[in-house]
Write a structure and sequence with these properties.
Elements (H helix, E strand, L loop, with lengths): L1 E2 L5 E5 L5 E5 L4 E5 L7 E7 L4 E6 L3 E6 L8 E4 L7 E4 L4 E5 L4 E6 L4 E8 L5 E6 L5 E6 L4 E5 L26 H7 L4 H21 L1
Antiparallel strand pairs: 1-2, 2-3, 3-4, 5-6, 6-7, 7-8, 9-10, 10-11, 11-12, 13-14, 14-15
Length: 209
């Protein structure tokens, strides 16, 4: 759920793929958005309250204009299993938590995945929170740990409207030294396991000869 700065409108994300709009002061239900293809799992306000951003179980971020809640104005698909939770860091940047355990920093309009803030080693992210002052991000997951990440550099990132060509499926950029070991090479463990299997297979073939 999210409430606007005036404390008048309550927005809710629902498992049926819709966003609900409630008028708190008048104590009445206003409207329901058109349903999306996946469950809406989280909702935050950005751009000084002019944009509503919803995460979904399919890994897509849906954007709504303020006072245009009936239909989405834009959508942005992340290379993630889901967007289970979100927290705004600036008026344009949110941090998202996913089933794959990766915490991504995402810029909204222009829509870009900035990189990896950190991860919980494949454990689903349950919740994210920004500490007072906006310098630290706290995360908790199924590994029963609360971790803290330095996000002080996110506020100084400027995203160009021009999108550079990027190789699809490349490694996620690490945004801090702690994230470097996890986010820079997300599939390192899998590759090491495959290499070890290949070496073992090669060794057994040479022995048989």
């Amino acid at each position: 759920m999210a409430v606007d700065g005036a404390g008048k409108i309550l927005l809710t994300a629902s498992g049926d793929g819709t966003m609900g709009v409630f008028n708190i002061k008048r104590r009445r239900f206003e409207l329901l958005s058109e349903p999306q293809s996946g469950d809406l799992t989280s909702v935050v306000l950005l751009k000084r309250g002019k944009k509503v951003v919803c995460g979904s179980s399919e890994g897509t971020i849906y954007l709504f204009n303020w006072n245009g809640f009936g239909a989405t104005s834009d959508r942005f698909s992340l290379r993630a299993e889901s967007v289970d939770c979100m927290v705004p860091v600036t008026e344009s940047i949110v941090c998202t938590g996913s089933l794959d355990g990766v915490i991504r920093a995402v810029n909204i309009l222009p829509n870009r995945v900035l990189g990896c803030v950190g991860q919980h080693l494949g454990e689903p992210i349950e919740q994210l929170a920004v500490a007072p002052g906006g310098q630290l991000l706290a995360s908790c997951a199924h590994d029963q740990k609360v971790k803290f990440w330095d996000i002080s550099s996110l506020g100084s990132i400027v995203v160009d409207e021009y999108r550079k060509k990027k190789k699809r499926g490349g490694p996620l950029k690490a945004l801090s030294s702690k994230a470097a070991g996890s986010g820079e090479d997300f599939f390192a463990d899998l590759r090491e396991e495959q290499e070890a299997t290949a070496e073992a297979t090669t060794g057994s073939d040479s022995d048989s000869d």
